Amino acid sequence: MFLFLKYLSRAVHEELQFENECKRLASSIKTIPNEDRHQTGESRRDNNEQEACVSFTVWRKSLLINCNGFTVIDSRGDIVYRVDIYGGGRPQEVVLMDGAGKSVLTLRRLKKLLARLDDWLVYEGEVGDDGPPYKSGKLSNKKKPICRVRRRVGLFRAASNAIAYVCRTTPGKARECLIEGSYANRSCKVLEESSRDVVAEIRRKEVGLSGGSFGTEVFVLVVRPGFDCSFAMALVLLLDQMFS
Hints:
The protein is an alpha+beta fold. It has helices at residues 2-26, 229-243, and strands spanning 54-59, 68-73, 79-85, 93-98, 103-109, 119-124, 147-151, 162-168, 177-182, 187-192, 198-204, 206-207, 212-213, 218-223.
């Protein structure tokens, strides 16, 4: 009984620490002013023509004790996305959930002969244990992926500076994009392949006026108007699997 109460006390203490840390991290999120957007790859526009970007603090920490994952916080300090990854090694599936724990997107490694280790399929919602793997080169008649994301390997499309590519598999469900930069340094841009417009960006999170940063465990995801925030976060999860 004593051991149980001790464990419960420690769990409550850790939960309070986690909540306070979430509020502290969220307090320093800033929306990019319209006049500064040209610095991140988008042309400057009039305030009436362009809404503000949306910024999230991404924390590489699960809400669950002894579990890997992510917690994503908005500017009000609310948890908007969460990821819980059980066990070690390389998971075959990663589920992006909203703050309430509902599945938003499911990411699965491509199960196909000769497929590279870092080829992924993205599905809407929850797929389930009997989800649709690639086996014979054809998709089953179950839920189909909205896109495929692959890491650049060797000389694959060597003329580009991209580190990963987003290939649409369902018309209208996802954009053809490429990702440039360095995830290890938390400095990446997601660009629409046809227009080269920056639609999302990963940045280091700075600490107040001191000019320091939180390192690689806490960083910022900036999403531009018109680009799906959930999909942008899914790309962060895939980059983490590919380059961590």
